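Subject: Myosin tail domain-containing protein

B.,
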Amino acid sequence: MPFFFSFSLSLSLPPSPHSLSSPSPFLPPQVRELEGEFEGEQRKSSESIKAVRKYERRVKELTYQSEEDRKNLNRLQDLVDKLQLKVKAYKRSSEEAVSDRVRGGGTLGGGERPGGREGGREGRGEAEGEGIGRDRRPGQE
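Prediction pasted inline below.
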């Protein structure tokens, strides 16, 4: 092996102008000022990146929430449609029952009730709920 490869150079180099860990006293004031501005811009850039990430997360959350709301709205609309169909069916059967009753000679008007009893309060006594101390609300008989 050759002998000339075994020595080492020990030169001390001045700090690189690219090392931004701390301002060096060997650099002119303009360079230190530029380094300070550069560090400030780096801080602003990292804060901007954090803000962008925060807003991206918020957009994802709102997008997910709006999709869930849309799904719920569709489910509710389906339920409303089904209920409307049921209401129409009940109304139709009620109208058919009334028309059958009218065609059959019975009427729902006058003193007769659908249950076969006479209307009004005069025929009822305590046995049918007009006892003392009964709580009456508007719209109840």
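The CA atoms of residues 62 and 68 lie 10 Å apart.

T.
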